[in-house]
Design brief:
Length: 281
Amino acid sequence: MSTPKSTLSKRVVALEARLGLRLLQRSTRAVQMTDAGRVLLERAGRLLADLEDAERAVLDHEGAPRGLVRLTAPALVTERLRGPVLLDLLRQWPSLSLNVVATDRIVDLIEEGFDVSVRTGSPSDSSLIARRLRPWNNVICASPAYVERFGAPREPDDLREHACIVLKPPAIDPVWSLRRGRRSASVPVRGRYTVSTQELALDAAREGLGIANLAEFLVEADVRRGALLPLLPRWTVPRGDLSLLYPGHRYMGSGARAVIEALTNHLASRGRAPADRSRAG
């Protein structure tokens, strides 16, 4: 903020005098906000947000997508959206800016100021809109060299006897869950190589270091060219739906709408058609 502290202090004192309330509790060591100050700050913040929404609505009324859009998605998804979606959007709309955060942690869209999120699973925040795009399934796979040397598992329990590439955060036992119709299997796996990202697991699987449990769309190109072989083909490894999330309580600018439309067209076209919109929760 470029306004001098002395000027801000005078304005706060003047506001306190007009209201007849103390907004800040001052001491020689610290300045703390009073309850009245916190209430005023919260209400003023809402008013400023409404004003910004009104300004965006006017600018977007008949204009091309513009403004800054903050997007978050898992690193795996972000990498595959970069070229066919994100860079194309920037080339197509010169007034649009993107701030993309690739992270696998659960992000609080409202608290952290994001406009759009791509996530898997079922969101629990009822203030968000969830647009389901496609199922996210994993594939159990290995390189031809690994299968030639060690054979292929015939049933999920056979995975216990194989070297598996373990993808896990620290202190979590790796268990792979599979489905076949009404049957299900949860198999503890082990291996000499433990990694924190699917990209590292993919590299290891290509090199024949073990069996991997990877996102279907991550390995589809390797499977097509024979670099990886799907194993246990009668079993599926469901992970939930891939969804777009965005706040439902505030005005959506033309930039955010353009990003959501582009993501929907790209991701849904690689799976099934998107389901109808619903409130998260």
